[in-house]
Amino acid sequence: MNKSNYVLLASLFICQAFAQTSTQTPITLEQAITLSLKNGKEIKKVKASTEASKLQIHSAQNMRYPDLEVSGSYNRLFNGTDVNLKVPLPPSSGENQMPQVTPQHLMMAQAKANVPLFSGFKISNAVNQSKQYYALAELTEQSTTENVVYQTINLYFALYKTQQSIALLTENLKRAHQRTIDFEQFLNNGLIARNDYLRTQLQEANVELSLEETKNTLKNISTRLSTLLDFPSNETIVAEKANPVDILPTKTDDLSTRKDVQSVIKMDEIAQTTIKIARGNYFPSIGLTAGYSAIQLDKVIDITNATMVGVGLKYDLASIFKNRTEVNKAKAKKTEAEYQVLLVEDMAKVEIEEAYNAYELALKKNTVLSKALIQANENYRIVKDKYDNGLTDTDHLLEADVQQLQAQIDNMLGEADQTLTLYQYAYKTGKLLDNLQSGN
């Protein structure tokens, strides 16, 4: 048995051993997307962030409610405490002077409430800004979800193309190996020169090398996709041919569905609200105050049910000068946000245009590749007949074989890429999730 036979048997043994330790699990693209939405760790993380942003709204709304404080204290007084009453006590009977009083303790209890009436609109603007941040968090969640789904789609198509390439290379390797066996017999019978036999061995080795490199690529892609989907480690995903998404690519300037564009617009709104909050420091804070106090100075005085109500005013005069910097800083952030909107919109237009061009190119390439496959198959058939009849040499046969294999791989890749460009266009226009949901 020659070296090539040993290599083929070893490859078959390894494949069989791998098949025994790993279960082949076919899943569709739709199933892969569902798993990514269910198990995606990045999606779970951004959902938690959105929930935290939602709670921040309640935190801002709490500023509208009154502040209520309750305090109390008990103090032991040292000997020698002087008590001088502003209102003199009447002397005891038979005495011409006031009695000596030595208090032992002092107890105080107090309850205060402060209801904000006006704070320069800072509370209402803070609540409004918290709602804007929550809306931004929702957009971020949608954008992250769309990114994870698109990543899943790309990995799935990469897995499909790699698995199909392995199938084509494996089939070609079988043919190359059989050709090597036939040429070895021809060589032993003196029908061909030794260099013809060596060329067949070299081509078989080249195909085998390409197959091993493709298998390594398959392992890497499978690991990435399995990790993203949280797929069992003892199962191997087998990708199936995916159906195209229901969308018709057109040249459009509609950016309204792009989550990144919506996000920067929302950030511009937040910057405007920040200016309003900064300007609120120019105004005084007014609040309604109310309280209750109880005081007991041992042996001297008891004060209970001391209730009060009033209006409190607080105004920082220095803020007239200091706050100007904060307002100008907020305005600068607003200008930055406005330019960021323009930059993101320009980039979005470029990406949509490129996605449309990629789809147009895929259509044209597929037309050419389909013809090339027909031509390569016919060319190999003709060259094979000529070789069998002794009308051409080994070089032409091997060249025709390589051309046929390349045409088969290119045609398979072209069909997959055409479908993938539809998903890419849907993603770049911000309509990927909507189209997937409408298709289910």
Q: What's this entry about, in short?
A:
By secondary structure, this protein is α+β, with helices and mostly antiparallel strands. It contains nine helices and six strands; from the N terminus they run αβααββααβαββααα. The chain has one domain: Up-down Bundle (Outer membrane efflux proteins (OEP)), CATH 1.20.1600.
Order of helices and strands: HEHHEEHHEHEEHHH
Rg over alpha carbons:
41 Å
Give the overall form: elongated
Annotation field: number of helices: 9
What CATH architecture would you give? Answer: Up-down Bundle
**Low-confidence blocks of residues:** 1-10, 12-20
How many structural domains in the coordinates? 1
Structural classification: alpha+beta
Beta-strand residue fraction? 5-15%
- Please summarize the sheet with the most strands: 4 strands, antiparallel
Distance between the termini: 55 Å
The CATH class:
Mainly Alpha
Q: Within the largest sheet, what's the order of strands? A: 2-3-5-6
CATH 4th-level superfamily: Outer membrane efflux proteins (OEP)
Instruction: Give helix % range.
Output: 55-70%
- Which fold name fills CATH's third level, the topology? Outer membrane efflux proteins (OEP)
Give structural notes.
Keywords: Cell outer membrane, Membrane, Signal, Transmembrane, Transmembrane beta strand, Transport. About 65% of the residues lie in helices and about 15% in strands. The chain has about 450 residues and is α+β, with helices and mostly antiparallel strands. It has a single domain, classed as Outer membrane efflux proteins (OEP), CATH 1.20.1600.10. Helix 4 runs antiparallel to helix 8. The longest helix is centred in the last third of the chain and has 70 residues. The radius of gyration is 41 Å and the shape is elongated.
